[in-house]
Amino acid sequence: MIETPGLMPTEDLFPIFVNAMFTKNFLLIMFLGLCSYVGLTTNSDTSKGMSMAVTFVMTMSAILTWPIYYYLLSDASILKTDLTFLRTICFILIIASFVQLVEFIIRKFSPPLYKSLGIYLPLIATNCAVLGVVLLNIQEGYTYGASIIYAFAAGLGYSWVMLATAAVREKLIMRNVDLFSGFIGAFFAATMVALIVVSYFSVVKL
Amino acid sequence: MTEDLMSLLPPAIAVLGALGLAMAGMLVWASKAFHVESDPLVDALMELMPGANCGACGYPGCADFAEHVVAGDITPDACTSCDAETFEMIGELLGMDISAAEPMYPITLCQGGTNCKDRYDYIGADTCRAAILLSGTKKACSYGCIGLGDCVRACMFDAIEIADNGLPKIKKYNCKGCGACVTACPQQVLTIAKEHGPVYVVCASHDKPKYVKEVCEFGCIGCGICKKNCPEGAIALVQKVAVIDQEKCTQCGTCIDVCPRNAIVKL
Amino acid sequence: MAKKSFVGEIIRGIIKDNPVFVLVLGLCPVLAVSTSFANALGMAMAFTFVMLGSNIFVSLLRKQIPPGVRIPIFILIICTFVTMIDMMLEAFLPPMYEALGIFVPLIVVNCIVIGRAEAFANRNPVLPSIADGIGISIGFAAALMLLGSIREILGTGALKLMMLWSKDGELGFYPLSDIPGFSFVPNPIEFSIEPATVMVTPPGAFLTIAALMLLFKIMGDRKRMKQLKKEGYEI
């Protein structure tokens, strides 16, 4: 029988926040969401747009999926059967539908934003970071409030790394060196940003 | 084990079915509530476009271009990025016969680069736009190519690079003739021309002859010998630099032979 | 269109269309799981299972799937296989399940699987789809194990070659030297270099993949330049 965590946060929120933003950063330490990371950090404007979209989708996904897991799938639910094996499919269903809804809304109310995000909007649905947040919320057994805060902090963590890498890469492009173009440059920039986090926050003893 | 299976099947189907129906219903409602009118022909054309948003057609993006093509403002062959296969498909879609226009590539109206002296040792942002701000540009000739690669960065097809002689070199197998590099050059020494045939004076320097001779090996000194010898009268002297009128030019090549500075080139 | 051979499709998946180094997709598990050879192998096997299952089923159903909702349906099919392998790993190989963590369920959003379903299995009959699946899986596995080996060798100074085997009735990942016939393989293979722990950490992962991509890019560029020179373009 799975114990359903409560709704209001009982855990220490500060460690959760710092973990999501730095020591267990989704992009650099957990390696989630890398496809959009290498694709979009050439330009700080697209990075900004994508970061906001991902943060929004992450938070909303956490809000929607937590109740589904604990009140529908777990054996503490009204159905009294352990359907937790359905979690992956249910979560992805909710996330994909939500992203599609967001796409409809953006297309209707802000065509320039829609044009600039282009193909990247539906790509958020298959972004490992979003599904990763949702799965980790369950794995860590967070309360509803804590899971929302964790998701939001994860989004912020994703955003700062995107913006920092965009800053590095835009400067790298200034150099006429073929070495730093495209994905290779993205990964070199990522190495630098990752080194900062790993050594400053003593994630691992180097 | 089959009892477990049978006991799990109904709730699993119920939950997944209910969730699926709920999401599908929500999306069906959303697609109607947030419906945006769009011409299916424009959408179909957009699918075929290369999507580079290079601006060669004169419109800010492929989406805009598709809209204007369907509206009849412009013909599809204005797109320099499409290859023959794509034009065939677009032609099929729109019911017209389209063939690619003659390929045009950028040329540099400057033979300076390493042939031209530097005015000073430049230490600063690695961009042409910054190097022209100080004291009449980093090169001794204020009108020539700086060679720091603003054109290279503007190219979205990886079709241009700065060669060892400090001048832009076009990789024709990638170049689509979109003209992004031409717009990006702060010295405006790049221009689009046909691949073979035209004759150009590859110098943009308006400096006095004595100065040009001092700083650049191939610069035009505005002596006017080409102008005198041109059988069509196609050459004019504009502030100490010769300019060939491409409309009048018959590409006979007389000017190339008489130029004392080797500043005229036939492509 | 020339008839493509089964083996030809497989080789294409490994080299010309290598999912990690050429298509640059599915990077998350590649970087996260390549901390050691054993983890890389485990992930590669799980991925192969999902890839083959998804390609076969999508190809079988390709005429029935309505185009407007094809992506959700692909995800549904892929998710079935992912849930299956997830539960199988949890039951039969708990240590590997612990090591791979959330990256097993995340195979469902792996761009490679969805990408190949959309680009290939949706348009081709079953047999070529199987070939494509095998090729892409081998390519993915090769990339993963290459990265895993490099990071393990440089990060710990030794390489532990492991393989899925059943020893005394227990299924698990055992050193290669335990398997009869391979006892000559040293376990672990020692390299006399000073280990650099950074290599098994995130910056090491990014650095390794950047270096490998650079290497392959240089090799590929050289080949392309030769090809273009032959066609007459001036370089």
Automatic annotation (TrEMBL), chain A:
Entry keyword Transmembrane helix: yes
Pfam families according to UniProt: Rnf-Nqr
Keyword annotations from UniProtKB, A to Z: Membrane, Translocase, Transmembrane, Transmembrane helix, Transport
InterPro entries in the cross-refs: NqrDE/RnfAE, NqrDE/RnfAE_oxidrdctase
Membrane topology qualifier: Multi-pass membrane protein
Main localisation: membrane
Location of this chain's protein in the cell: Endomembrane system
Lineage of origin: Archaea, Methanobacteriati, Methanobacteriota, Stenosarchaea group, Methanomicrobia
Gene Ontology terms: cellular component: endomembrane system; plasma membrane
Protein's UniProt name: Ion-translocating oxidoreductase complex subunit A
Domain of life: Archaea
Annotated transmembrane regions: 16-40, 52-72, 84-106, 118-138, 144-168, 180-203
UniProt KW Transport keyword: yes
From TrEMBL, chain C:
CC per GO annotation: endomembrane system; plasma membrane
Transmembrane segment boundaries: 20-38, 44-61, 73-93, 99-117, 129-150, 196-216
Function: Part of a membrane-bound complex that couples electron transfer with translocation of ions across the membrane.
GO biological process, one term: electron transport chain
Membrane topology according to the record: Multi-pass membrane protein
Family statement: Belongs to the NqrDE/RnfAE family.
Organism of provenance: Candidatus Methanogaster sp. ANME-2c ERB4
Pfam families named in the record: Rnf-Nqr (PF02508)
Cited InterPro entries: NqrDE/RnfAE (IPR003667), RnfE (IPR010968)
Name the UniProt record assigns to this protein: Ion-translocating oxidoreductase complex subunit E
